[in-house]
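Q: Hi! New to this. If I give you a protein sequence and the SMILES for pyridoxal-5'-phosphate, can you show me the bound structure?
A: Yes, paste them in.
Q: Okay, here:
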Amino acid sequence: MNPQVQAFTTPERLLLGPGPSPVAPSVLRALAQPTIGHLDPLLLQVQDEISALLRSVYGSESPWTIAFSGTGSSGMEGALVNLIEPGDVALVAVGGFFGARMVDVAQRAGARVIAVEHEWGRQADLAKLRKAAAAERVRFVCAVQAETSTGVRQDLAPLSQLARELDAFFVVDAVTSLGCMAVDCDAQGIDAAYSCSQKGLSCVPGLAPVTFSPRAQARIASRTRPVQSFYLDMNLLMRFWGGERGYHHTISSNLLVALHEALRLVHLEGLEARFERHARIGRSLRAGVRAMGLELFVPDEDALSQVTAIRIPAGVDDLRVRKRLLAEYGIEISGGLGAQKGRLWRVGMMGSGASLRNVVLVLDALAASLRAEGEPPLDSGVEAAQGAFAAGTS
Ligand SMILES: *Cc1c(COP(=O)(O)O)cnc(C)c1O
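A: Thanks. Here is the predicted structure of the protein with pyridoxal-5'-phosphate bound:
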């Protein structure tokens, strides 16, 4: 061990990318409390309260509502690997990077996947999905509610309807929607949904809230073969989260206590107020970006509030601008993913990060960075953003 190694000090960053989002001080304080055992009776109480709070954010009454160890991807993996048996047909709507990841994970779980592509930047193509499903025994309809790679919001009702018509299970990626907008699992007929701790809930990364409907629970409990993943097997995990409280793995008490605090803050604000705040801040940011003379990637009717994708103007260097934002202003935004790499900036206004203050800061810093690149915007966008904000609640 090199005695010269210095303690690491994390700089202050303003996290305005599509996750992780800014973490409230009380959540960080909760995280820094002493570690306790995963079978400590006090932790069991924290888990019960997490489950109840999560049920409310998910709009689900299902007791199979817990948090997996791991990030949003462990939620995706867990949802699919618990439900899928080899050879099952899964219909997946793909309009971005995370829809494509669902295809990959469902295939690894043994499904025969019918991936139905639609234009990046728009909602799923229902006619195309219906056509692809015809004459197939589709067991799962899978979709991403908030496609973080493009900033598109997916209406769940038509896909839920399709799943019902096909007598299929409806699996929803709520990684970027949970805590920012309604998921409404029970009302939307969702059988499995998964998310992460570090986006709309504004906790640190490391946990993946998931929920399974009673129908999904029955299927998982009566599988013909065990869930391929020991770590994410809901039948085993529910012995730990449910009545028996038996050892399964050493879940991080620190992360659970932090998530508990983050969920408490969500409920303190109130779900409706929180969703409305995101909508208002999203409109404000979009108005500002437009006033700068920049182009938005997603038309208003399909746009998310919590992630805004901006087309990078021709001739502007993506990386140089983002490096400048980070180095000179301490602001993190993100670039494009997959086919949109180098072509999009993605600005997140998530959880505790969704504020007029942050809209103004990011617009001003982006305008200054564009001027420094010799590509001055029409306007800083700040007044337009303030105007849209003042125009108020929808
Ligand atoms: C971030 C994200 C994921 C993956 O979550 P990780 O926490 O990075 O593992 C999956 N789906 C969507 C829609 C996401 O935005």
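A: The chain has a mean pLDDT of 96. Let me know if you'd like me to explain how to read the tokens.
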